[in-house]
Amino acid sequence: MGNSTAVSSSKSLDHFFSLLIVSLVLVYFLNNGVAAADRKLLASESHEFHTIKLSSILPDSVCDSASQGHKLPSPSSLKVVHKHGPCHKTEQSSLPSALELLAADESRVKSINSRINFNAARNTFASTKSVTFPAKSGLSLGTNNYLVTFGLGTPKNDLSLVFDTGSSLTWTQCEPCARSCYDQAQPIFDPSKSSTYSNISCHTPQCNQLKSATGSTPACTTEGTTCIYATSYGDNSSSVGFFAKDTLTLTPTNVIPNFFFGCGQNNQGLFGQTAGVLGLARDPLSIVQQTSKQYRQVFSYCLPSTSSKTGYLIFGKSYVSNSVQYTPFNSSPDKRFYSIDILAIPTVFSTPGSIIDSGTVITRLPLYPLAKPVSILDTCYDFSKYSTMKIPTISIVFGGNTKIDLDDSGIMYAFSSSQVMCLGFAPNSDVSDTLVYGNLQQRTMQVVYDVAGGKLGFALKGCA
Ligand SMILES: *[C@@H]1O[C@H](CO)[C@@H](O)[C@H](O)[C@H]1NC(C)=O
Ligand SMILES: *[C@@H]1O[C@H](CO)[C@@H](O)[C@H](O)[C@H]1NC(C)=O
Questions:
Q1: What's the 103 CA to ligand 2 centre distance in angstroms?
Q2: Is the dihedral of CA 180, 186, 189, 192 positive or negative?
Q3: Whose CA is nearest to atom 1 of ligand 1?
Q4: Contacts for 174 with CB less than 8 Å, ≥ 6 apart
């Protein structure tokens, strides 16, 4: 600190500081009566800000597969890679632009809010905490950014699925792709080649559970035998196909027989050459509930600091960090979501419900928008003349008095192709909207979902 780069950098970040005051430390500064001119001094003297190398938060163009892969913490752990990063084999031409990604993120948040507000309204009228799903075709939540690879069928086929804590049904594209399959990197799963595959009949409890898992009433094939699922996501992506079961191989020593999943015959959307979706939400059909005997409804993941590094997804309790701090899940109006309370920054985080969602990139604060946004991000800077930046220490206080400092990689949103970075917090369109604690702010933490224990945990430095 204190060299010329840091000084000029902090001048150019005046705007950034003002925004932070609005968004994050309003009460602190007002209570202390600090004039605007003293902000920088105060900030550096009180260690509210620190300097980092820009390169430390920018992705490389090649996969750093050694970043985590060689020291995966557990035999039940799966490697996590970014859907659009160099660790996943994707055709360059099919990569969405940053603007497309942010727009998809925005529609995901809109769809989360439309569901929650809808259910909140129902609850008010019914003055009860019980929730039934809307009868109209329901939206699940999609557009996730991280994927894991595991085996399906006998012999097993390796498939990379995006994992999503906001949806329950797991599905993959299936031959013969009766209506439509999009391009995927691996061969499409062919049920006729798996000796352990079977269709699920319409008249089974599992077929009935699809209604709450997907929000859509299941159908039956015309001959009246096979159960048909339909699931659609906030960004217009969807999958429809046969409901089925087969053997799921997480790792060679973690094999789940008779795993229920969707065998997709009509698949549309922005799945980025992945084979489908792994549903980690709370519904009985989610993998968390289907494997509750083996893993006791506990899983954790670590999302890497950049899209060129790898993280992990682990099922079970044994590899949870000792330093994890927990916050209780609250009773969400929509039982499919994992809902927590965020207490910090009282004037900004004034909405009571917050949900944690691994599929939404940007944490949303009900801020007042500033000029010249890049898509949904309203506070962006050109760092082309700098190699370091001063960023604030941002901590979030959760229910249960759990205080977590965000990692440096969880504060600014970097566009891989340019030196423009934006503060990774986006305004909600309405102050009453739910705050979504997105996956940018979860980077490098081990995030532990102890569903049976009713709590969510965070441990710092879970991965690089
Ligand atoms: C599953 O059901 C579909 C539709 O009825 C049928 O075409 C397919 O052959 C069935 N697969 C198996 C393995 O029974
Ligand atoms: C979703 O699909 C509908 C109908 O195909 C279309 O009108 C709409 O523009 C699409 N929305 C997005 C966000 O792609």
A1: 12
A2: positive
A3: 199
A4: 188, 189, 190, 191, 241, 242, 244, 263, 264, 265
Q: Could you report the per-residue pLDDT of 91-124, keeping only the tens digit for each?
A: 555 556 666 666 666 666 665 555 544 443 333 3
**Active-site residue flag, 164:** yes
Residue 103 CA, closest ligand 2 atom number: 13
456 burial type by CB count under 10 A (0-12 exposed, 13-18 middle, 19+ buried): buried
**b (16+ CB within 10 A) / e for 293-315:** eebbbbbbbbbbbbbbbbbbbbb
Phi then psi for 462, rounded to 5 degrees? -75, -30
Q: pTM score, two decimals?
A: 0.74
407 catalytically annotated: no
Q: Is the dihedral of CA 30, 33, 36, 39 positive or negative?
A: negative
- Model confidence at 66, in pLDDT bands (50, 70, 90)? low
Tokens of 195: 């000796």
Report helix, strand or coil for 202: coil
Centre of ligand 1 from the C-alpha of residue 298, in Å: 34
- Condensed to tens digits (0 to 9), the pLDDT of residues 239-270 reads 999 999 999 999 888 999 999 999 999 999 87
